[in-house]
Amino acid sequence: MDQLTNLIKKEIKKQYKSVRQFTSVLDIPYTTIASALKNGISGTAYETVTKMCEALNIRIVNYQHPLLINDEVITVLNMYNALDEKGAHAVRTLMEMEYLRCIGQEGGAGSVFNNFATIGAQNGTTIIEAEDQVSVSELLHEIADED
To answer: Is 68 helix (H, G, I), strand (E, B) or coil?
Structure first.
């Protein structure tokens, strides 16, 4: 199933709880939307797909990688754009750590340490030495396990 179909399914469930409720709000036949969600939206009329996406706050910037743009995302983007380089780097580093956690990828700490070292070198701050990285990595894993 393509990413846009999966995103639409997820958002219908999240925002409307059921396909039937979603179709009643849009005034589109249930069978049309059920078929689109079952078979993928690639065979669905453009007007129908656009109507569905607008109702779900999905902006199709690139059909291959659809984005959910809502007030929360816009607020986060506005805050990110107001950050200086050090703040933007910190947010990107934290986002990378959380992304790796969410996809279940282990060993992401090495790249995080590289990011810290890079920003440290640029700003004259403390750089985590190689021998200390193991201790810090263990501490980060302990913190993550507590959650």
So the answer is: strand
